[in-house]
């Protein structure tokens, strides 16, 4: 039995444990061989800013782990045009580079998944 | 069809706008917790422009002293019903 | 129909901890099943055996326990989230060399796989967030 | 020894324990005979909406306790024009009716206090 | 100069729990005094003796304890906020008929009066919030 | 003079606007935690219009990968100094 699971994270990398918790959920989904998508909306797009030196605040950088997701068969990290616009970011300056959904694609993307988990 | 569950106050515009931008025709938006403040007269015009049906959670609305007026509400069992009528739920907070 | 609930908030942190309990009751009252309630993030504090609210305040850990007893609910607390935050069962208390655990009865520590399994086998999954 | 203490609360009544915690701080200040001011900004002005029937969610209504503050020599509950405007509220429809500060008054009000505690 | 710090957030709930500790260190490094650190709201979880983070993660309760030991800090946890949330010292554990408390060493439960007193006698009071 | 300490991301406009509206000439605004994202190019024009001096907390800025460019920053000991230079602090989160 299998279900498509969408994980929506909306938090900046160090504001709380949310970014890392979303990653852990995505990895758990992959380990249990479920098709998992990770959608970073709003502040969560800030997880993809390059050059994070989080040792300054004794925190782990979720960015490094986001880059490792393809090893777990999570090939794409999604975000929306609106989230990029919120902070004036360009997809090609982010690491790992996200797959960007426009408004119409975003709506259909959500509707394509059977389970949506937000955090 | 998707049930969108919005628990954030109108002071959190970013959450509202992200929720709003994912609504499709046929979806339902359920306002719970501080989301019921969207039913204050000040905020109603924005609700009226949404492409989704809007409902309030009764207990949360009553607790916060918000008038129902022309809007629709459901009790907790109606919340469960809405989950069943829709294929999935997305929580916005 | 089978529901799974995901609870992210601690009792005093966000109204959603209370909303989740009300929703669980409504699901059961309507004759549906709850496959699992999964407590994640700050939600692990709903499983504290030590929470001691004043008598005139809602006691969410106690109400979850009572509901679980009545309906034989599966209340699973994410072990990684819990241990970090100081919610331990007896075994974890031993592992980390603490004198005693504080996980309330009827709750069980387990991994995120329990959330994935629940998502797959349930008809509906509802997240109770708050306090991102 | 005495200091003027300003407590700024910015939370709606049931979103978390913040509204009740702010009240408890104000009462503690009064009990220890310090001059305390309570300023409700942004969502906190929603604590003053009349007709809150919080038994529906098994919560205590902070509104009732706000009305009792004068008994503790906290005569005024302050808010700002901006906070009223945020939710389109009129001061005279609120209970207890707050003392409303305009932008200029608000700035000076904060600067008049020796200690500011926010929550 | 004398500082008082007010901490409102739990370790994983908000970055501000970590900011508060860094600030406390900077105050002491600069040769100033900390009159008191007052833990309120979800901040009471900084005082958990049971928190058991992975080794490669910051352990805030432990770091507060170490700092308190080194500098003889007064770490006060609001008793009303703590008891509700399941943080109990031995005495409160007895009062509420729990097997054991979980308040870490070097922390002390006391009332909001301790915050008011600290506000009055300190030169500066700084709030570390987050997660309203 | 007051030290305003802003820890909320630009996505929380309500917190920013309340903080902004209480700034007086001579006050200092210290951006900490997710407040350092106000230094992203997108948000700088609003910072530039504030009547207060603006500083960033170095460790928080570095952690989040935000460029300093033309802004001023302080380390943790500078944060302590700012508290002393001002008569009171107000935290916005």
TrEMBL record, chains A, D:
It comes from the Bacteria. This is tRNA 2-thiouridine synthesizing protein C. Transmembrane segments: none annotated. PANTHER family: PROTEIN TUSC. It holds the Pfam family DsrE. Belongs to the DsrF/TusC family. It comes from Marinobacterium stanieri.
TrEMBL record, chains B, F:
It comes from the Bacteria. InterPro entries: DsrEFH-like (IPR027396), Sulphur_relay_TusB/DsrH (IPR007215). Transmembrane segments: none annotated. Pfam families: DsrH. One of its GO terms (biological process) is tRNA wobble position uridine thiolation. Gene3D superfamilies: DsrEFH-like. GO terms for cellular component: sulfurtransferase complex. This is tRNA 2-thiouridine synthesizing protein B. It comes from Marinobacterium stanieri.
TrEMBL record, chains C, E:
It is found in: Cytoplasm. Belongs to the DsrE/TusD family. Keywords: Cytoplasm, Transferase. The lineage of its organism: Bacteria, Pseudomonadati, Pseudomonadota, Gammaproteobacteria, Oceanospirillales. Coiled coil: none annotated. The keyword Ribosomal protein does not apply. Pfam families: DsrE. GO terms for cellular component: sulfurtransferase complex. It comes from Marinobacterium stanieri. The keyword Cytoplasm applies. GO terms for molecular function: sulfur carrier activity; sulfurtransferase activity. GO terms for biological process: tRNA wobble position uridine thiolation. This is tRNA 2-thiouridine synthesizing protein D.
């Amino acid at each position: 039995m299998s279900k498509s699971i969408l994980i929506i994270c909306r938090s900046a990398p160090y504001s709380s444990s949310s970014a890392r918790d979303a990653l852990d959920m995505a990895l758990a989904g992959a380990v249990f061989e479920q098709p998992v998508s990770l959608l970073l909306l709003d502040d969560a797009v800030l997880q993809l800013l390059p050059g994070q030196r989080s040792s300054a605040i004794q925190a782990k950088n979720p960015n490094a782990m986001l880059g490792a997701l393809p090893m777990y068969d999570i090939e794409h990290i999604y975000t929306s045009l609106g989230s990029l616009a919120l902070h004036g970011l360009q997809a090609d300056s982010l690491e790992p580079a996200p797959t960007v959904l426009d408004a119409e694609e975003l709506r259909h993307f959500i509707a394509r998944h059977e389970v949506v988990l937000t955090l | 069809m998707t049930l969108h569950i919005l628990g954030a106050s109108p002071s959190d515009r970013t959450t509202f706008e992200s929720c709003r931008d994912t609504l499709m025709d046929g979806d339902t938006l359920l306002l719970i917790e501080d989301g019921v403040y969207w039913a204050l007269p000040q905020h109603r015009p924005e609700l009226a422009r949404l492409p989704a049906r809007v409902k309030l959670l009764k207990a949360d609305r009553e607790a916060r002293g918000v008038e129902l007026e022309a809007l629709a509400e459901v009790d907790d069992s109606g919340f469960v019903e809405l989950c069943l009528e829709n294929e999935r739920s997305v929580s916005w907070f | 129909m089978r529901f799974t609930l995901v609870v992210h908030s601690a009792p005093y942190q966000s109204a959603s901890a209370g909303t989740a309990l009300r929703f669980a009751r409504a699901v059961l009252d309507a004759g549906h099943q709850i496959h699992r309630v999964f407590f994640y993030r700050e939600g692990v504090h709903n499983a504290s055996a030590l929470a001691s609210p004043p008598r005139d305040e809602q006691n969410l850990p106690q109400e979850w326990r009572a509901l679980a007893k009545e309906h034989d609910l599966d209340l699973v607390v994410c072990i990684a989230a819990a241990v970090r935050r100081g919610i331990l069962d007896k075994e974890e208390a031993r592992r980390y060399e603490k004198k005693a655990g504080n996980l309330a009865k009827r709750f069980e520590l387990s991994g995120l796989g329990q959330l994935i399994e629940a998502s797959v086998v349930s008809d509906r999954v509802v997240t109770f967030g708050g306090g991102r």
